[in-house]
Amino acid sequence: MTRQLPLPVELAPQADLADFIAGDNRQLLDLLQRIAADSNDEILFISGGPGSGKTHLLMGLCRRAEQQGRSCAYLPLDELRTLSPALLAGMEAMDILAVDGVQHIAGRDDWEEALFILFNLARDAGRSLVFSADRGPKQLALALPDLRSRLSWGSSYRLQPLDDTGLMELLQTQAQKRGLQLKPKVAQWLLRHCSRSPGNLLGILGRLDQKALAEKRHNLSLPFVQSCL
Predict the structure, then answer these.
(1) What is the Cα–Cα distance from 116 to 110, expressed in whole angstroms?
(2) Which of 132, 154, 177, 216 could form a disulfide linkage to 54, CB 3.0–4.6 angstroms apart?
(3) Is 142 helix (H, G, I), strand (E, B) or coil?
(4) What 3-state DSSP class applies to 97?
């Protein structure tokens, strides 16, 4: 199960490892699938820029683990940092801890200490720990050197950007899941005229979906897309 937190943290319905377009990140995706299924005592750190897919992967990990009958806690630190770090107490009981956005608690002594303690307890219990941030652990502005050291213990992956083929596949796959028709020439236009981060492109697709729903249409024609952006 996914651990319930004292605020409404839900896994995005589209966040599934099966929907992640791997590109040059296949090795990372394979490792996450193993962790979700049965691999214990893993430490993994994922870094990447905004919209590169970190949150998708961590949420997808938790969803896959839940499907496999394993317990997983998804911890979005950009949301949780406004609360007391005492909420981390007992989290080491979960099979997998997915800690998203470590950069958001850098310089917060109380949160750094709590995360350090949780790391040690989970490690001693043989749990798997997966972290994400916008940069590698050695580049994080953490005040607690021991926490930075712990975060560097395991495997570290930098998400590689998708090429045009991967981004086209992402757009068309997600459009199809929404019941929308997105022709290759329209997808190519989006790649030429919009920020190419997966997060941004999916955000645009979401807005187009809302517009299309309001107009009761399924075909995302080029004139329609241009009028919406």
Answers:
(1) 10
(2) 132
(3) coil
(4) strand
Confirm if 14 and 174 have CB atoms less than 8 A apart.
yes
Strands 155-158 and 72-76: unpaired
| Dihedral angle sign, alpha carbons of residues 131, 136, 142, 145 | positive
Q: Which two tokens stand for residue 12?
A: 């995005």
Q: Is the Cβ–Cβ distance between 45 and 138 less than 8 Å?
A: no
What's the alpha-carbon Rg for the chain, to the nearest Å? 19
CB atoms within 10 A of CB 157: 19
Tell me the C-alpha to C-alpha distance, in Å, between residue 175 and each of 143, 180, 207: 43, 5, 12
What does the alpha-carbon distance between residue 28 and residue 6 come to, in Å, rounded to a whole number? 30
Instruction: Look up the pTM and report it.
Output: 0.86
Which domains are assigned to the chain? 17-158 (3.40.50.300), 164-228 (1.10.8)
